Amino acid sequence: MKVKTTFKKDEKIKVISFDLDGTLVDHSFADAVWIDGMAKLYCKKTGIDIEKAKKEILRNYDEIGDHSTKWYDLDYWFSKLNLEGSPRELMEAHKDKVRLYDGVKDVLENLCKKYRLVLFSNAYRPFMEIEIEQSGIGAYFEKTVSSVSDFERVKDTVAYTKLCSLLGVSPEEVLHVGDHEKFDHLYPSAVGIRSLLICHNKCYPRETFSLKDVLKILK
Ligand SMILES: [Mg+2]
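ok -> C-alpha cells follow
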C-alpha cells in the first residue's frame, strides 16, 4: 500500500470524523445480516434455494442503490420483501460477529487525547448502535451520527455541511477518515473537509491509508 506522503498534519484540525463499516468495524456483521441473514429469511418466505435467494436479495439492493437512504434501512427491506420476524431479531442473532479491525482501539485511544472524535456513518441508527455497543468504542466519541437516520440523507455534501454545523466547526477544522471513495472522500472534499481514504485490503488502485498511517500523520 502506497502512503500519500503529501498529506501534512494541519494545525487547524480539531475534529476527526470516522466512518464505521469498513473503516473501524470489518464487514463480518454487515454481511451476516444483509446477505446471509436476509437471504435465509427470503428463502423461508419464497421456498427458493439459498444461492438464488442471495442473488435476488442483492439484485433488489442494486436496484435501489447506495445513494438512497432506503438501501440502509432494514425496516424498509423487511416490509418490501414481506419477511417474517424483525430487523431487531435479525441483528441480535448476528451481533457476536461485530469485529473491529486490528489496532482500532489503540488509534482511537491516542487520538481522543488531542482531538474531538465523532462517528459519521451511513448505517441506520439501530444497526450502528449494535456495532458500537458490541465493539465497545462508544466512549471515544463525543457524538455518533447516523446520516441516514439523523439527517435523513446519505453522507453527501449537504450532510457534511450539517455535520460541521452540528459540531460548531468550520469544514477546515475537520478531518474525515473512511473507506468509501464517494461518501468518505469526494463529498467531504467538495465542501472543504480534508479526508483520508482508508483501505484495509488494498482494494483501491490509488493512494490510500491504513489506520496506523492516520495516527502517524496526526500524532
Ligand atoms: Mg464504510
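The two ends are 20 Å apart (CA to CA).
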